[in-house]
Amino acid sequence: MPRLAAVVLCLLASNSLLAQSSFTGTGTGAIPDSPAAGPMNYGTPLTISFNVTGLTGNVTNVQVAFTGSHTWIGDLECILFAPNATQHLLFEYLESNLGAGGSDSQLGGTYTFNDAASQGFWSAALAAGGGAIPTGSYRAVQSGATTTTEVLTSLNTTFGGMSSAIANGTWTLRFRDGWTADTGSVTAATLTITTSGGGGSGPAVTINQGSTQSDPTSTSPIVFDVVFSESVTGFDGTDVSFAGSTAGGTLLASVTGTGANYTVSVTGMTTNGTVVASIPGGGATGVTSGLTNQASTSTDNSVTWQGGGGGTPVVTVAAGGTPSESGPTNGTFTLTATPAPSSPISVNVNFTGTATSGTDYTVTGATAGVVTIDTSGTATVTITPIDDSVGEATETVILTITTGTGYTVGTPASASLSILDNDGGLPGGGGGKKKSGGGGGGCDLGGTSALALLLALLALAGTRTLLRRE
After folding, report:
1. What is the 3-state secondary structure (H, E, C) of 211-225?
2. In this structure, what DSSP letter does residue 165 have?
3. Which CATH code is given to the segment(s) 314-419?
4. Residue 117 in 3-state DSSP?
5. From CA 369, how far away is CA 389, in angstroms rounded?
6. Which residues of the chain have pLDDT under 70?
7. Collapsing DSSP states into helix, strand and coil, what is residue 25?
8. Collapsing DSSP states into helix, strand and coil, what is residue 74?
9. Is the CA virtual torsion 160, 162, 167, 173 positive or negative?
């Protein structure tokens, strides 16, 4: 007796986790007739809607019923759609084996479709022999377009395990007529959904950038690691969302892995931006729980894509630092390609200015007037001053990007660095190098002033004149 009581309590507890809700359809009415002979020459549909709210947990059972009439049932197609467009055919082109028109039996009452029924709707139409199909519960069947005998199908295989996050929304029951002349209508419809009632949770799942994934990156594919809290089935690339991504292109996910651990590889990026990956609830089914997954959580599910793909890189340059003979201290030119190239590009540059390469400075990062920008999108050219013992004015180094293949010259296309001297420079600021002591930009007279020299020359000229007159 105690054992029996325990079993009863267990069963009651199990059943208490289930919740059943029914929803009345709106939009009933006449089924528009086909515009021409068929079969399956479908006209405007009659669409009945069910506003499903308040579900919790996951779907365990789906049943739909309608009250209607129609002559020549072989004309009709009837499909149930979930809010996420998942669909299940109830019947179509019944008894196609009888000829082009299919079954001539009729609708005339209330018909309920669920997996618990013992008879398929195809065999019921066949048994009616052209009369009204008896009211009652029936199994959904495969289309007469693909079979000439009854093939039962399962509503719960299609909708079972769907999360309440997906199941709450607008369901629709669609009727279409595929052959002209015979008509009918639907006067009532009810959708009944049983859920786990929130008593159990589907597998949790995380998605984060792969453990070896670079960020930012210009290498495709971008990899994410996915971990479920239990082994699952049915997880594929269609279960990955890219909502929130800014990278251009049609992003595609491919999935590898089994059990609870998967790798998602993303391709299709055409312009720079972020790739954000997430997993909505309801896509995969837990092997142990039998429930569909919850929506994913993440600590870092975003990767910055710099691989471009949407156009030719535009290259610009910027100067950095103040190079000086003291130290010496380096200066830099940074070349940036936007978008970053998908493979290295060679960029042509010229060096000009008042400073002379090899005499006043050396260059690192440019060879024979070419700078290589890799897929990171940047390259650095380093200017190292040569420390000599000659006093000089501040001199300039100008890098200018010139045209080439695989890139476009952007703005700014040139930048300048000023090399500082550490030997005192030129008093008076002449141009060019100082050849001997004293000021620059004029003659070096060993300290003799130009005015004194001029007076001496005038005096000498006057003396010579007097001597010649004498």
Report:
1. CCCCCCECCCCEEEE
2. H
3. 2.60.40.2030
4. coil
5. 29
6. 1-17, 197-201, 289, 307-311, 424-470
7. coil
8. helix
9. negative
Name the residue type at position 268. G
100 DSSP assignment:
T
Tokens 């049915």 locate to: 234
The CATH classification of domain 16-195, taken from the options 3.30.565.10, 3.90.470.10, 3.40.50.300, 2.60.120.260 = 2.60.120.260
Q: Is 217 exposed, middle or buried (0-12, 13-18, 19+ CB in 10 A)?
A: buried
Q: Which residues contact 12 (CB under 8 A, 6 or more apart)?
A: none
Tens of pLDDT along 189-238?
999 999 885 545 678 999 999 999 999 888 889 999 999 998 999 999 99
Pick the CATH number of 205-305 from 1.25.40, 2.60.40, 1.10.1670, 3.30.70: 2.60.40
d(CA 275, CA 209): 10
As a residue count, the chain comes to 470
Confidence (pLDDT) at 464: 41
Q: Domains of the chain: which residue ranges?
A: 16-195, 205-305, 314-419
Angle at 149 between CA 145 and CA 154, to 5 degrees: 80
Q: Between β-strands 76-81 and 169-177, what pairing exists: parallel, antiparallel or unpaired?
A: antiparallel
Domain 16-195 matches domain 314-419 at the CATH topology level: no
428-452: pLDDT as tens digits: 444 433 333 344 444 444 444 455 5
CA 41 – CA 36 distance, rounded (Å): 7
